[in-house]
Design brief:
The chain is mainly α and 207 residues long. The protein is 83% helix and 0% strand. The termini are far apart.
């Protein structure tokens, strides 16, 4: 039961964090391509700082330095830490996707009378989403695996659950190999799922 409970927490952290990361990444990517120097600088500082510090260190800073005085729940702190960290990587993924679209597409949109942001939302972003899907999938998979360091602030994710069973039973084989197998099934399953989505989107383009 501990493994199942830990799996639930692992998935909860990963799903909530990727949603937070996607929202942050989307907004900061738009800031980076906006042409406004201040917005670009803010987005640049965010991505540089969050990508330059190990996730485990960020997690402990979030819990012990920033949120300790507020008495925030450990699980919520973990979700926020993973979400803000993922936001930095999603920013670069989305920025690359937006800037990877042929400038001619933007020029065509503007020539049709669309505003700059209408062109971005109606022409550029739909194409960028398809282009970044494989990289976005990888970010989500990495996020699931990185939840294994949530135990640094005593959150009982799946790895922590396996370790607790190992300590109680003095048997490392079954709990740890079970955790490894579940992580593998999760990552392979998600890779297949997003692969099917990618193919479906490519098929809709051709039809």
């Amino acid at each position: 039961m501990l493994i199942v409970e830990g799996l639930g927490i692992t998935l909860l952290i990963a799903f909530c964090a990727i949603i937070i990361g996607t929202v942050i990444g989307f907004l900061l990517a738009l800031m980076k391509v906006s042409g406004n120097k201040i917005l670009k600088a803010v987005a640049e500082v965010y991505t540089t700082v969050l990508r330059g510090i190990p996730l485990a260190t960020q997690l402990m800073i979030f819990y012990f330095v920033i949120f300790a005085p507020l008495g925030l729940n450990r699980l919520l702190v973990a979700i926020l830490a993973y979400g803000f960290n993922s936001g930095a990587y999603c920013t670069e993924i989305f920025r690359a996707g937006i800037q990877g679209i042929d400038p001619g597409q933007t020029e065509a949109g503007r020539s049709l009378g669309l505003s700059k942001w209408q062109t971005v939302f109606k022409i550029v972003l739909p194409q960028a989403v398809k282009a970044v899907l494989p990289t976005y999938t990888s970010e989500f998979i990495v996020l699931i695996k990185e939840t294994s360091v949530a135990s640094f602030i005593a959150v009982m994710d799946m790895t922590k659950a396996g370790d607790m069973i190992r300590n109680a039973t003095y048997n490392a084989w079954i709990p740890l190999l079970t955790c490894a197998a579940i992580y593998l099934v999760l990552t392979v399953g998600l890779t297949k799922l997003f692969g099917m989505l990618e193919k479906r989107m490519a098929k809709s383009d051709r039809s």
